[in-house]
UniProtKB/TrEMBL annotation:
Protein name: LysR family transcriptional regulator
InterPro entries in UniProt: LysR-type_TF_proteobact-type, LysR_HTH_N, LysR_subst-bd, WH-like_DNA-bd_sf, WH_DNA-bd_sf
Family membership noted in the UniProt record: Belongs to the LysR transcriptional regulatory family.
Keywords of the record: DNA-binding, Transcription, Transcription regulation
Gene3D superfamilies xref list: Periplasmic binding protein-like II, Winged helix-like DNA-binding domain superfamily/Winged helix DNA-binding domain
HTH lysR-type domain residues: 10-67
């Protein structure tokens, strides 16, 4: 019971009465500012003192004076009120702005969304796009996120969801790495292999062993090479010529188009869980949200 009381906040009315009395040094002056009676202000402050278990003011006929504990508490209160005032000013400035808050897996944000974003910005220059990269589960009730570009949808049973795409992997490499054929006469791969470790999500991403088996190169043993937990880092490593990568088709399109990566085989394996667009119903009430959904689907 005591632990619950410790985390319960006092009423905002009581805190405001305390701050006003501290700034004016008088219950009567505080009452005049707040359009209350001095007795009501005094009662609010006493309730706050009881809640906190400390004495905030020393009272006298000439007015009120902060105790040391009251002075310490006032500093926190003033900081909190200043934050609230800044937030109110910010909301007032931005109330007419159109913005969309996008959370996304880092690789989706950097490798799939960003290369196309110029197209959206040219079409809707008045819409502010805010992108937050995260691997965590997005709580739409606790964040400002309007959309989440996610791998799978199992964490969002109550939200709206649409499949963006199902990806595929195939071997790619930098042309600067390929000083000789990537397969020798015995169908052995002669270059290092870049590996991606997604932890528990790795069960949905084909690895080199699975690809070799599926490509009927089952006598080959996956070569050693650097291992990354982030897809974007693995792609950068392949572009740098550190080895051959099983690249995801949608995430390496820019590199393939530019020629910084070359597809080595037509044999592909599917990533066995789709990428989704997740959003709460409230998002559809925001200006340009529907247009953004349609635009994302046009990229798939």
């Amino acid at each position: 019971m005591n632990s619950l009381k410790a985390v319960r906040l006092p009423t905002l009315t009581a805190i405001l009465a305390f701050e006003t009395a501290a700034n004016t040094g008088s219950l009567a002056s505080a009452a005049a500012r707040l359009s209350l009676t001095p007795a009501a202000v005094s009662q609010q402050i006493r309730q706050l003192e009881q809640h906190l278990g400390i004495q905030l003011f020393a009272r006298s006929k000439s007015g009120v004076e902060l105790t040391p504990q009251g002075s310490a508490y006032l500093a926190y209160v003033q900081q909190a009120f200043e934050t609230l005032r800044m937030a109110q000013q910010s909301m007032a400035r931005n109330k007419d702005n159109i913005s969309l808050n996008i959370s996304a897996l880092p690789a989706l944000a950097s490798r799939w969304l960003n290369p196309h974003l110029k197209q959206w910005l040219a079409q809707y220059p008045d819409v502010d796009i805010r992108i937050h990269a995260t691997h965590g589960v997005v709580d739409f009730n606790r964040t400002a996120a309007d959309f989440y570009l996610a791998f799978g949808d199992e964490h969002y049973p109550q939200q709206e969801k649409e499949i963006l795409f199902q990806d595929w992997v195939f071997p790619v490499a930098s042309p600067h790495l390929l000083t000789a054929p990537w397969l020798d006469g015995k169908h052995n791969i002669i270059y290092p292999m870049i590996h991606v470790d997604w932890g528990k999500e790795g069960q949905f991403l084909p690895d080199w062993h699975e690809w070799l088996l599926s490509a009927k190169l089952d006598e080959c043993v996956p070569n050693r090479g650097p291992t990354y937990n982030l897809t974007s880092m693995a792609i950068d490593s392949a572009v740098a010529g550190n080895g051959i990568l099983l690249g995801q088709q949608h995430l390496i399109k820019k590199e393939l188009d530019e020629g910084s990566l070359i597809q080595l085989s037509e044999h592909k394996l599917p990533v066995t869980k789709p990428y989704y667009l997740i959003y709460p119903k409230r998002t559809l009430d925001k200006p340009k949200a529907v247009e953004f959904i349609q635009w994302l689907h046009s990229l798939c």
